[in-house]
């Protein structure tokens, strides 16, 4: 390989004062990424021998790391001065290579992302032309296919979550492997290491093996904080499928703020989805329940395992892991199961629901007392009366109109009540306080 | 603010459209865009030049890239108030330069980050791509500020900063009469802050777009300590 590339890199680094990452170099010079990495390495060696003005470099380190008693695969960007220290902490180093070369000492990893962002954006059609990651099945969709996918996402059809659909596989694998790699990157050495969830993502996109949900469960449950991020990244990964927006953010702040909203929209979509599916045949229902299982398994990383309640609608849960919630949710699941199935289930817990006209008083956002009258799906049991009643009441005024006295619709409304009641479960303590007046 | 702009462009029937400065709606949009950018830029300058300890900064997202913004409420309020007062000047195209001056303990400037702003009198918007193009240019500015460490020498400890605005003609007379913000007065800057003796000029970035032309350079004092 001729030596012109040294001059090119020199021009970028010294004259233009640019940050040269291996990805932007490969796109600029039209070479394979591995060649670009080697080029950067040789350039560094060359310059250091010449003792020219100081250059700084960052390295990408990949390997196995044991932390908190569990092994994980860690991918990190490390500054040169912290490289040796970081390498000594890893158990097994799979790869180390130059990530970027620049004149300035970077205080944080933000600019590295910006460099690649613009480089990729300029070469959007062929950004993976020089990449080392390949997947024969990953081809851009034709406009017709794209339209069909968009329609399918707006009106979600219950599709079997088997390996038949490539997109489905990728979603689950993305959501399951992402917690492992993305979180570990986030919780790596804070003083030096920078997160590379961007780097990890392209690798996962091509990963077509479906990681068992059970495997990720014990790994995630060990650290409750990781669950917090894990559930968020999982929910975020489902959202891109639904809304076709690609949000990669390596910082923890935006995901935290954004995730409550995606969770809510996703939850209402899931509730709607369940409502629609009920009126369909049983065969479809089985497939549907499988999807619920997958969704529930994702959510169940926060909750305690409840192997009994399955084949039921997904009860939306807020991302905050709360101990009280799992306990409330599991008895409710059993309750609605009783109602939905045939009435001849004497063996199950006898908790029936009835609709009662009640007026509920609560404190709204401005601190005013609001009284609402509405039909409340109320359970007979006394213990859960106080916190259960107000939650449906908040939703009832909206539900009252589209509810004819059809049995099916009764089921729907009752189903909606537990779905929405759990949203109110979080505020149960506040409303309950005022109820007892 | 970009959303506002996008809706505005949607109303136009595609193709070329010409707006004049009198079209205040558009002027406001440009001022909004610029003030947002200046806010991000000021925070980033404070972070990169270590005017304040890096602990008060947190990563936030702007123009789809991570940027460092301060969490300190007083500092944030000060910067916001400053830019709020500058906004009317930009709207009327009275602001020639916005300067972020970093001064040392003796109140002598060590560095001046000069944003020269120029708006063409007749604006022509061609299409929606204008939006993403400007965003891309502003991203490049942010990137350049992030690596300006390489071309500037280290500042002495204990620096603080101030913001100056150079206006065209006598726009400041209006500013004195009509205080844009209560309890946030603007004063005529000291001569020593405005002019540096024999500064070293370091150009950082310039951009040209249909709606605005901006140039960023740094005047650096030769001897900082």
TrEMBL record, chain A:
Keyword field: DNA replication, Nucleus
Entry protein name: DNA polymerase delta subunit 3
Source organism of the structure: Oryzias javanicus
Biased composition (Basic residues): 348-357
Low complexity composition bias: residue spans: 162-178, 247-262
Segments of skewed composition (Polar residues): 188-199
Residues covered by region (Disordered): 152-437
Basic and acidic residues biased stretches: 273-286, 324-337
InterPro entries, per database record: POLD3, POLD3_sf
Domain of life from the UniProt record: Eukaryota
Signal peptide range: none
Subcellular location: Nucleus
GO biological process: DNA strand elongation involved in DNA replication; DNA synthesis involved in UV-damage excision repair; nucleotide-excision repair, DNA gap filling
A Pfam family of this chain: CDC27
Any single GO CC term annotated in Swiss-Prot or TrEMBL for this entry: delta DNA polymerase complex
MF annotations from Gene Ontology: DNA-directed DNA polymerase activity
The keyword Nucleus is assigned to this record: yes
Automatic annotation (TrEMBL), chain B:
GO cellular-component term (any): nucleus
Protein name, UniProt field: Mitotic spindle assembly checkpoint protein MAD2B
Gene3D superfamilies listed in its UniProt record: HORMA domain
Compartments reported by the entry: Nucleus
Lineage: Eukaryota, Metazoa, Chordata, Craniata, Vertebrata
Domain HORMA: 28-218
GO-annotated biological processes: DNA damage response
Signal peptide region: 1-17
TM segment ranges: none
InterPro entries: HORMA_dom, HORMA_dom_sf, Mad2-like
Protein keywords: DNA damage, Nucleus, Signal
Chief place where the protein resides: nucleus
Gene source species: Oryzias javanicus
